[in-house]
């Protein structure tokens, strides 16, 4: 009997190892299953058109005897491209129809006007991809749009919130009823992702390839967000206190919630984006403290208090560049 004892011990070790391995595997699976939502709450396709905020820039003059643009086909489209199919260069890009960073459809009267605000500093390679890609994507949608690039032209800490506020002020002056706050490193992949505001704020980039196409948390608004201009003004825009990376988007989500506004989303198959490779700004270690302090200061810190010096506003053919120092 004693000669079998080592074998029994060996079997016990193997069984114990298998149990530990299975428990670890289950833990890993549960972690990834709980890290974000693959199927998040969203508007059903049949309700998208009824939730769109149909408003145009009052400066836009409809063409006589020209039909209105129709958006049903776009919203029902199932077309998309894979992230690896995104072009890295645009040597043959055509700027037909573009003027001062804006586009208006020729064959129909648009029912939507949107200002796309892009905060920017020292990412020329990404901007060289973003601008032509977005024009090629948006010109097929039958919308009136203008792209604004707000560039921080100083050596101070990066301040995305302040830059969005500055861009919003220009878009308000230009009479745009809808603002789309857009990171320069995100590109939409789905044809049916109509660039339009809804009746309430809309988080557009709910499914990003870098995050396995899952929504990392419910109140996420970063990446690409469409919000009515009057609502952006009502929440007093972004906080100007977040320097570096992180915090400003979650603070903006809290401002939206404080005004009893909901964050809406399109279905996942209309919300996929690819993220261009980039280096992050320095993380803001004070973001949690600032968010806590801001709960009582939404009306004092934001769009109405942003402090900056405008260096230039250049209306180029492909985009309007707003250069500022904070």
UniProtKB/TrEMBL annotation:
Annotated Pfam families: Glyco_transf_7C (PF02709), Glyco_transf_7N (PF13733)
Entry similarity comment: Belongs to the glycosyltransferase 7 family.
Protein name: Beta-1,4-N-acetylgalactosaminyltransferase
Transmembrane region(s): 12-33
One GO term (biological process): glycosphingolipid biosynthetic process
UniProtKB keywords: Glycoprotein, Glycosyltransferase, Manganese, Membrane, Metal-binding, Signal-anchor, Transferase, Transmembrane, Transmembrane helix
Main function: Catalyzes the transfer of galactose onto proteins or lipids.
Domain Galactosyltransferase N-terminal: 99-197
Organism in which the protein naturally occurs: Parnassius apollo
Keyword Transferase among UniProt keywords: yes
EC number: 2.4.1.-
Gene Ontology MF terms: galactosyltransferase activity; metal ion binding; N-acetyl-beta-glucosaminyl-derivative 4-beta-N-acetylgalactosaminyltransferase activity
Residues annotated as domain Galactosyltransferase C-terminal: 202-279
Classification of source organism: Eukaryota, Metazoa, Ecdysozoa, Arthropoda, Hexapoda
InterPro entries, alphabetized: Galactosyl_T (IPR003859), Galactosyl_T_C (IPR027791), Galactosyl_T_N (IPR027995)
Keyword Protease: no
Topology class, membrane: Single-pass type II membrane protein
Pathway membership: Protein modification; protein glycosylation
């Amino acid at each position: 009997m004693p000669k079998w004892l080592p074998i029994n011990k060996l079997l016990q070790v193997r069984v114990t190892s298998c149990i530990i391995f299975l428990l670890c595997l289950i833990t890993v699976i549960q972690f990834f299953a709980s890290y974000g939502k693959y199927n998040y709450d969203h508007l059903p396709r049949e309700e998208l058109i009824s939730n769109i905020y149909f408003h145009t820039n009052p400066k836009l003059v409809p063409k006589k005897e020209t039909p209105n643009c129709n958006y049903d086909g776009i919203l029902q489209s199932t077309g998309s491209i894979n992230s690896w199919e995104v072009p890295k260069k645009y040597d043959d890009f055509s700027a037909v129809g573009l003027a001062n960073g804006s586009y208006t459809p020729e064959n129909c009267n648009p029912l939507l006007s949107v200002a796309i605000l892009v905060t920017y500093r020292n990412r020329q390679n990404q901007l060289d991809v973003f601008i032509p890609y977005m024009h090629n994507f948006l010109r097929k949608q039958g919308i009136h749009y203008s792209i604004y690039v707000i560039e921080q032209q100083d050596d101070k800490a990066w301040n995305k919130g302040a830059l969005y506020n500055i861009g919003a002020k220009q878009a308000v002056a230009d009479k745009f009823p809808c603002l789309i706050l857009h990171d320069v490193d995100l590109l939409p992949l789905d044809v049916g992702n109509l660039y339009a505001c809804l009746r309430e704020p809309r988080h557009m980039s709910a499914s990003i390839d870098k995050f396995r196409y899952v929504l990392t948390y419910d109140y996420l608004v970063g990446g690409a967000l469409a919000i009515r201009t009057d609502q952006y003004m009502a929440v007093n825009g972004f906080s100007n206190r977040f320097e570096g990376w992180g915090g400003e988007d979650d603070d903006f989500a809290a401002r939206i919630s404080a005004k009893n506004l909901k964050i809406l989303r399109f279905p996942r198959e209309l919300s996929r984006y690819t993220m261009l490779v980039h280096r992050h700004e320095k993380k803001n270690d004070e973001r949690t403290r600032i968010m806590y302090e801001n709960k009582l200061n939404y009306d004092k810190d934001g769009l109405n208090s942003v402090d900056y010096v405008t260096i230039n506003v250049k209306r180029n053919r492909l985009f309007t560049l707003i250069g500022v120092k904070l």
